[in-house]
Amino acid sequence: MRYNLLMNYEESSAKIRQKLASLSETKAEDWHLCLKARFGMAIVFEAIRDELGNGEVITTPYTCITSINPIIVSGLTPIYHDIDKNLLSTGKPDDHYVKGKTKAIVMQNTLGIIGDKAKLRKFVDKHHLLLIEDSAHCVTRFARDADDQILADISVHSFGVEKVLTGTKFGGAIYLNPKLKETNPALYERIIDKFNHLKRPNLSLAFRIRNYRLNNAVIQRLHGNFRRNFRSFTIKAGLLEPPIYPFEQQGQQDEPVTTNKYVNERIISQLSNLKQNYIRRTSNVAQYQNKLKSKHFSKITKNSEPLLAYPILFEKPEKANEAYDLLTSQGYFIRRWYLPLLYPGPDSLKIYRYDPKKVPIAEDISKRILCLPTDLTAIETNKIIHLLNDKKATVEKPVQN
After folding, report:
1. Cα–Cα distance between 351 and 252 in angstroms, integer?
2. Tens digits of per-residue pLDDT, 57-94?
3. DSSP string covering 73-132, please?
4. Which of 374, 341, 380, 333 is nearest to 357 (CA)?
């Protein structure tokens, strides 16, 4: 990172955009930076409201609450569609979901599972909607058509906590498809203008960003209630920037800001290793696919994609819980995305206008899924495989495409 230290903020921001463009075969001018991906989403949805008026956004509850808050704070209304079992994301909605005030649909590449989403592009074109892609789990990767053209009008990418770049904790980027400049020039220009006027983090936030790793390391060494109480104290005292603030479970979020030089330096360093990062994840996905002999998986692409985590679905929630306890007892960090839905769960379903009865597939899967790490060494991945194979737990039969 020595050469990065010689860059100023503007130069390091330009370097990130260049790297993003190179890694994704896009243009640097089409990338726009922010401190958190949720901030970029808020800018996009606020611009949509400003240009197109109040209305609804079709999305999924099988996601993090920070992906829904930008819709709410912009003055738009989230409408939840159930997930496709092969994509862990919204498939092609039924026509009746689209009403007179529907403005956009969110296409989430859950865990990095992209799959065939061309039918979703046809759906939004039919109804004259915007297609917003949530690629937070797979930075620089997009859903594309048969001609390798990017499907989304706007694509959201993240460098934040528990994402593909394990060495970064902050940072997000919005990709604006240059075609949007032709189809909706006013919206295109408004989004760019909003990004151009973003402020950098103030001194207090900059302090929390720089000390994020140190503060978390100290907290993790504490135990029980003292750890929880101390963590709560540091957040209230303005000493810790948590992945999700308590008020973000109430349909709120902070005002958007952009990155700073410190965040940029970490992003540049990690993007330089992204190809190797994806090679490792792809290799581990292949190991899970080929060596988990007694398990059958239904929500995973047949391709060996570089997934953020590898999902397996158990027959019963109790079996998923047993496997989770087994693996975590051996020291593995195993995710339960997304349990509960709208993770880590809203304080009020009314605020989010969420009715669990309308999304039975997402509700069911969230209770039975286990997400295995893909950023480990081959030896560690094999240990997980052996543990699960020995357990002989039952999972669903594979879905035949």
Report:
1. 10
2. 999 999 999 999 999 999 999 999 999 988 999 988 88
3. HTT-EEEE-PEETTTTEE-S--GGG--TTEEEEEEE-GGG-----HHHHHHHHHHT-EEE
4. 341
Q: In the chain, what is the greatest distance between 2 CA atoms, to the nearest angstrom? A: 59
pTM for the complete prediction? 0.94
Residue owning tokens 């240009």 = 51
Would you tell me the crossing angle of helices 224-236 and 212-220 to the nearest 10 degrees? Answer: 160
b/e code 125-147 from CB counts within 10 Å (16+ = b)? eeeebbbbbbbbbbbbbbbbeee
Q: How far is CA 292 from each of CA 19, 132, 285, 310, 386, rounded to the nearest angstrom?
A: 36, 35, 11, 12, 8
**Other CB atoms within 10 A of residue 56 CB:** 20
What would the mean pLDDT of 241-246 be, rounded to a whole number?
Answer: 96
* Residue 379 half-sphere exposure toward CB, CA atoms < 13 A: 0
* CA angle, residues 182, 184, 186, in degrees to nearest 5: 115
